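Hi team,

As requested, here is the filled-out complex form for the iron/sulfur cluster run. I kept the field names the same as last time so the parser does not choke. Let me know if anything looks off before we queue the next batch.

— J.
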Amino acid sequence: MSNRREFFVQLSVGAGVVFASAGAMANGPMVAESDAQAGALGYKADASKVDKTKFPKYAAGQNCAGCALYQGKASDAAGGCPLFAGKQVAGKGWCSAWAKKA
Ligand code: SF4
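And here is what came back:
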């Protein structure tokens, strides 16, 4: 019996951790274009402002909302991205790691 009780205690602690990290992902601050990581990846919150000379691979219509790494829904204004842990990128944003959503 005591084992069973322990199992439930661990289960609820584990679920709490998962929930907390999902919440942080959804509510993190927006990535600033001035962030070092954003600069390195050529991130722009507005994909139409991408420096096409520097990033010739950018094609109109590409944005975070349509990127395989975007963790928000395609319709979300902002969402998480594993390249910017704990922060949010704009659905209309873009960076050079963009990959077409399968
Ligand atoms: S990897 Fe994708 S979702 Fe993340 S910032 Fe770049 S384009 Fe946006």
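Two things worth flagging: The chain has two helices and two strands. The longest strand covers residues 78-80.

Thanks,
J.
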